[in-house]
Design a protein that fits this description.
240 residues; Arc Repressor Mutant, subunit A; three-stranded antiparallel beta sheet; 10 helices; 3 strands; 72% helix
């Protein structure tokens, strides 16, 4: 395994997170990472920083921490080459504001078409699945937990699969992997409105039920644009 270089920069947590992501990208799903103590030693940082970075990576579903057994890379086998290439951009620390906005533009185009396809192709079973996700997300939203964020993401992915275009669904999954850290940072600011997110998903679901394509597309555009503005604020704060 390639030796990790010691860190000289001041933003230790961000740098540790970035280095661990680089390491994970070059491993296969199921591979075991060095122990927390060894990672800290190789990076030349405190174990507490490594521990917090690993917790973040676990929340991002990039590693699985099995107490008493070790830390293991967690990768879906269905990650296609396109997803890997885009994720590499992110893991190497190249996701600047311009690239982020480009990704959001792509998400807007994809999700607008997904709404059209879902309105045309959704079955009763699809609708019931979406309703179940919204109910679960609403329950988590009242507790203001990260689970609500994950379930909100699952709503969008299920909606994509409802459209019956597998490639578009995979592209949206790729975008979520690339931007997941920024969604989590949005929640950590305390300004993320969990219940409003649920309400917008309910409105989207109603447009799918009634097959109102234009109304659904308007909702998704406003939904994503609001989130884009919030993330831009995070970029600006980090660059001060």
């Amino acid at each position: 395994m390639e030796e990790l270089k010691k860190i000289q920069k001041t933003k230790l947590f961000d740098e540790v997170l970035k280095r661990l992501q680089e390491l994970i990208f070059n491993l296969k799903g199921g591979d075991r990472l060095p122990a927390e103590r060894k990672l800290a030693e190789n990076l030349g940082v405190n174990r507490n920083i490594v521990r917090e970075a690993l917790k973040t990576l676990e929340a991002l579903r990039l590693v699985q921490i099995k107490h008493g057994l070790g830390i293991f890379v967690q990768k879906s086998e269905d990650i296609i080459n396109l997803e890997s290439n885009i994720y590499k951009i992110y893991s190497l620390g190249n996701l600047d504001l311009k690239l982020f906005k480009d990704i959001i533009d792509a998400r807007l185009l994809i999700e607008k078409h997904i709404i059209e396809l879902a309105c045309k192709n959704a079955t009763l079973e699809d609708i019931e699945d979406l309703e179940e996700v919204v109910r679960s997300q609403e329950s988590s939203a009242f507790k203001h937990t990260y689970k609500s964020l994950e379930e909100g993401e699952e709503f969008h992915l299920k909606l994509a699969r409802t459209g019956k275009n597998q490639f578009l669904a995979q592209l949206l999954s790729t975008i979520f992997i690339v931007t997941r850290t920024y969604r989590m940072e949005h929640v950590s600011t305390g300004e993320f409105d969990f219940l409003k997110d649920v309400e917008e998903h309910k409105k989207l679901l109603n447009t799918i039920k009634s097959k109102k394509i234009a109304a659904g597309q308007n909702i998704i555009v406003n939904h994503i644009k609001k989130w884009e503005m919030d993330i831009e604020a995070i970029f600006e704060e980090k660059n001060k």
